[in-house]
Structure formats: structure tokens, C-alpha cells
């Protein structure tokens, strides 16, 4: 897969397609992108590198992503993901975005099941995962997962009103039944048409 962390971040952080009456704002640009592992990267699952070009990203448009993730433990279902999404409403003052229809500050009981809704079990992994021999279903074996710089076309994206233009930060915490597996932070600015 692009890497476990990238799929997790995309699954839980990006807006989902929906009917036109629910989403009326169209995303046009993503800028000020940055990321980091929480706690100095001491968790069993860490992002060791992540490159995104160009920044800003025009939407629709093309983006190139290169990434490496290291898992020091195997990841088996259920893998819980707790997402905290906040918007800066005044310099230094962040407002939590509530979980509404699976978007915002949400808890996902098992991201393995979430991945299975996008790539049904038994189907081959999509490109470029297949080309690079990257898995796309749980369990994920212990090891390093690398995606060389690969270009992707980003289609038009509609946003819910709660995700209008502005600066956002997200934190994603992965865990199994008893252990924190990984923690990642993303900062980004969104602009709408």
C-alpha cells in the first residue's frame, strides 16, 4: 500500500464524497503541509519519511508522494484509530471539529475494516501498491513499507461546511486492544473555490 500510515491518514482525514446538497464548498488548494511522529517517533509504527510535491497542491491536479513507514510489530485487526481534527480560528486558538458522519474528530473502531470497504478482500491491490509489492489488507507484517516517489491525480473534492478555508491540524493515534501502536500529526492549510 502507499504505506499503512498514508492509507490511515487519508482514510480518516480527508473529506468523503457525498451528495451535492451536503457539501457545497470545493477544495482548490492544499498548502503549508507538514507532518511528524508524536513523541519523537518511539512508537512501534512510525513514518520514517514523507515527501509531498508540489506544495501547494492544486485540486484538481497532480501530486507526487514518496513515503516510508516502519512497523516494528505486526498489525492485525482490530486496529483502532482516534483522530483529533482542529481548525485555527484565531492565531494560537484551535477549535476541535466534531465528528459528523465520519468526518472530523472521530474514533474508528477498526481501520482494517475501513480499508476493506475501499478494497474488498480477495481483490488485487490497486496500483501503485501492486507494482511495489505493498499490501493493502490486514494483517500487515512487521517490516518497512516504502513507496518510491509516485504521481497521483487528485479529482475535484467537495468539503462539508465545517471544513472551510483555513489552517488545520490533525493527530491520528493507532492502537490495538492494549497498546498504542503509532501517533502522527499533520498540519495543513485548505483553500476553497
TrEMBL record:
Gene3D superfamilies membership: Ganglioside GM2 activator
Signal peptide as annotated in the record: 1-20
Pfam families: E1_DerP2_DerF2
Residues annotated as domain MD-2-related lipid-recognition: 35-188
InterPro entries in the cross-refs: GM2-AP, GM2-AP_sf, ML_dom
Coiled-coil stretches: none
Molecular-function GO terms, alphabetical: enzyme activator activity; lipid transporter activity
GO biological process, one term: ganglioside catabolic process
Entry keywords, A to Z: Signal
One term under GO cellular component: cytoplasmic side of plasma membrane
ATP-binding keyword on record: no
Keyword Signal included in the entry's annotation: yes
PANTHER family (alphabetical): GANGLIOSIDE GM2 ACTIVATOR, GM2 GANGLIOSIDE ACTIVATOR PROTEIN
Protein name per UniProt: Ganglioside GM2 activator
Protein's organism: Phascolarctos cinereus
Origin organism lineage: Eukaryota, Metazoa, Chordata, Craniata, Vertebrata
